[in-house]
Input
Amino acid sequence: MSWQAEADEIARRRAWAHQMGGAEAVARHRSRSRLTVRERIEALCDIGSFREVGGLAGTATYDAQGRVQGVIPAPYVMGLAQLNGRSVAIGGEDFTVRGGTSWGGARRKGGQGGFVEDLAHEYRIPLINLIDGAGGTVTSSRRRGYTVFPGIDGFERSVELLGEVPVVSAVMGTAAGGPAGRAILSHFSVMVRGASQIFAAGPPVVKRSLGQDIDKEDLGGADVTVDIAGTIHNAAPTEIAAFEQIKRYLSFMPANVWELPARNLAGDPPDRREEALLSIVPRKRTQPYPMGRLIDLLADKGSTFEIQPTHGKSVITSLARFDGYVVGIVANNPMHLGGAMDARSARKQIHFMELCDTFHIPIVFLVDVPGFMVGLDAEKAATLREGMRAVYVAGQLTVPTITVVIRKCYGMAGMATCNKNGADIKIGWPSAEWGSLPVEGGVAAAFRREIEASPDPKKREQELESEFRLLASPFRTAEAFAVEDVVDPRETRPYLCRFAALAQSKLSTMLGPKSRSGVRP
Amino acid sequence: MARHVVAAEIAGTVFKLEVAAGASVLAGAVLIILESMKMEIPVEAPIAGKIAEVLVSEGQAIAEGQSLAVIEG
Output
């Protein structure tokens, strides 16, 4: 007597799982140009690599003889898969089953404290959350007969994972409540512009609480959450494009904090000298230049991946490779706010520096910062406090850093672009200028009385400014060995490739989780 | 035809107008240069289209978020 009948039942039960919420619900979901959770997993992961865990979980119906008639699957699909040949844990809500709301099995498959998080934790592999649900529903309290305390299924494991393995969240549908919170508890998050939304609470709750009528796209579309708020890091035009971003992001990441990111040589010579770098910075000091292009000229060709490209644009944060080694680039962008650090760019830089520090990625600072953003709007946004947080986090970095001053490096915002705790190198281009504050304004403040007393105050101010500008030559600072070198801009790539290689020995001695002490200001 | 209002991301003064009403522009074209933070900061067209209105003049002081121009595209 074989077990053929049971083997057939396994196949039958799996087929039910693959029917998801049924033909009608699946058709309705697809009619909104959305992929099902199973299609998403298939599209993202290496072909045929998905090994489902918990595929038989669901709500079954039995006939009078105890024979199973069908199973409505649990509204969460998860398991193990390969991504670019490496193991990942992946899971997502099945929106076609009760809108992906939470489900009362013996053990949670996904969501806070879900099994998929345990897989990532136990096997030390990256976690990918495909988020498409609104979390809890009040109908569950009718079933239970009581309301649950918030956090009974807490975020403890989600928090723990952020110090252990790369966590990526893709907001695929409309996310509110628990799934929205979990989207934020990630190292990298992406959503689909025009098709997905995320908020603490959706339009019906806003209507009831504030009396405001607002639709879900205006409330939580990418224009708000990615560009303005920075709630989600990146936006993609389609679900497939979002998956490409996830693959790209994870290609820079190690599997966990106990490993170093893999080197990937793409054949770009480390000693390549770019002539264009010699003239990319205009001699006229008020004229900005494209920092993004400068980065592209320096890094391995085609290797950059920008995090938060549409938010806090006065700083660019980009993963990249130099001679195949993964490096994090923090570059001030003079095209936006003149490169000044505002509250948004400070938060963006803080996240990126902590990311690099956690995953043992050395940091290159390309500096052109006039200081913190000034003015009433900036003060209302707590720019000074957010900016000093950036200085604080920069001061706690343990990965090797190198600072290349392209043009301005002033004041406390300048201090957030270097780490002077060890032998972290600071070099300048010939266009570099630095100080505790710029000559313009600085002279007027320090010599106010002398300028006012002069017969021609305007002329006196200009005389003083040119006197101080001569002192601001980077060569004078190099003479005093107060910077390590002034370099020909064309030498910068060879220099940085050398740094990336040099950093590896130190990085290999500091693997493992980082404990951070102290209180962020 | 969508009307897209281009707003200032920073307070400052209008240093130079690079386009006038009626001009056709590509996405990324510089419309206006603002002077702020001691820098000449370009304001770029977010979309391709035709300049319907320029709402500021050279030398004018502007606030963060102030509307600068309208593009129809």
In short: The first strand of chain A starts at residue 51 and ends at 52. Chain A touches chain B at residues 286-288, 313, 334-340, 370, 373-375, 377, 438, 440-441 (CB under 8 Å). Chain A is about 35% helix and 20% strand.
